[in-house]
Write a structure and sequence with these properties.
Elements: H1 9-14, H2 19-22, E1 46-48, E2 60-61, E3 87-88, E4 96-97, E5 100-105, H3 113-118, H4 134-157, H5 173-180, H6 184-190, E6 191-192, H7 202-205, H8 212-227, E7 238-241, H9 243-261, E8 280-281, E9 284-288, H10 290-300, E10 313-316, E11 321-324, H11 328-332, E12 335-339, E13 344-349, E14 352-357, E15 364-366
Parallel strand pairs: 1-11, 6-15, 7-9
Antiparallel strand pairs: 2-3, 4-14, 5-13, 7-10, 8-9, 10-15, 11-14, 12-13
């Protein structure tokens, strides 16, 4: 097994530093490339624990009981017999295990004097006793970020038939939603087709007309109001969208609405009610899912000529898309295992996860 890190301090020295200057190279002077931080997956999803294979999803269909109360009889002490209608969704969880193991050994050739100096490690560091050192704390932090990144990929882009067995775990939520919408009646009531997704190449796919974002949001909203009006009363109702689609809508607002309603000739352009921080349609907030956009491009690869459905939007409330796992601790934490015989430290992560639409009729999908 290859060691878990790929960081050679010698590369920094050879970049123009002499050995005296190398002493100034340490963790306190490290500057990281700025990136958009991946959102906390657990914080942005409704998670149910205690989930195993074939565990029922804890959700109930509650049809209207319009005929529950009936006129009392005029014949004395007799009562009408009544029935309550309610039943579980009959959906089952089908989680899959995912795992990863990182391995470290102090006898590895990469653990040079300069490497130890950079991370402020002792000459004879003992990984079993010095787990608070900067190097391992850095590894733990980076591992936690990597697990979080992977959760987004698993939930939204893994699929069982993937030819790459590493990513052939659960079917992602988009596939499951499209499976529900295979019913033509539900398709007519809950799906909006984004025509640009079928463009011949990336340029055609990304060539959104100026009002595309607005038009797709309006179609989704209209489907909800006509076919699923109860959704408007649910807490946490929101549009979740890929970046380009949301920015297209924002640009349309700024170009067609902002100049006529929001700026005073004497104030100058000091602020606007049309901004990413308060973007909404008909009062329903819009949440840009940066992770969707990044993963669409990542899964396509740098040489891609076409993306897989680069524009996506989902209108639903918080608890409709449920993530299931056996144990929340295993979901977010990792184990540290030290083998004194081999002097190797292992950091291991093994969560299980599934993602489901709680109800078949509580979402509007544009894809």
């Amino acid at each position: 097994m290859a060691l878990a890190y790929d960081f050679n301090i010698q590369d920094l020295i050879e970049a123009g530093c002499d050995l005296a200057q190398a002493r100034q190279l340490d963790i306190d002077n490290m500057i990281f490339n700025e990136t958009v931080e991946t959102s906390d997956f657990a914080a942005k999803h409704y998670i149910q624990t205690g989930i195993e294979h074939n565990t029922p999803i804890i959700a109930w269909e509650q049809p209207k009981n319009w005929g529950f109360l009936k006129k009392s009889s005029d014949a004395g002490c007799t009562w009408n017999s009544c029935t309550l209608s309610s039943e579980p969704t009959k959906k089952l969880w089908s989680p899959h295990n995912y795992d990863c193991s990182l391995e470290f050994c102090w006898n590895d050739p990469q653990i040079t004097r300069n490497f130890r100096a950079f991370w402020k490690l002792k000459c004879q560091s003992d990984p079993e006793l010095e787990f608070d050192n900067a190097f391992y704390q850095f590894v733990i932090a980076q591992t936690a970020k990597a697990v979080n990144d992977s959760m987004w990929r698993i939930a939204y882009f893994d699929y069982k038939d993937n030819t790459n067995a590493d990513f052939a775990g659960i079917d992602n939520i988009f596939l499951k939603l499209l499976g529900i919408l295979a019913d033509p009646i539900l398709t007519a009531q809950q799906r909006v087709t984004i025509t640009q997704n079928s463009g011949a190449d990336i340029a055609a796919q990304m060539n959104l007309p100026a009002d595309s974002g607005y038009q797709y949001l309006k179609k989704m909203y209209d489907l909800m109001i006509v076919n699923r009006p109860f959704m408007a009363t649910k807490p946490g109702l929101k549009f979740r969208m890929t970046q380009e689609l949301a920015l297209n809508y924002l640009n349309w607002l700024q170009n067609t609405k902002e100049v006529t309603c929001c700026f005073s000739p004497t104030d100058g352009v000091t602020g606007s009610k049309y901004a990413l921080s308060n973007l909404n349609y008909m009062g329903i907030p819009i949440q840009i899912e940066q992770e969707w956009t990044e993963l669409i491009k990542h899964t396509a690869g740098p040489s891609a000529t076409k993306y897989d459905k680069p524009h996506r939007a989902l209108l639903t409330y918080d608890t409709e898309i449920s993530v299931g796992t056996c144990d929340m601790n295993a979901f977010k934490q990792m184990k540290r295992i030290y083998d004194p015989v081999t002097e190797k430290l292992h950091i291991r992560v093994k969560p299980n996860i599934d993602i489901q639409a709680t109800f078949d009729k509580d979402f509007i999908l544009a894809i």
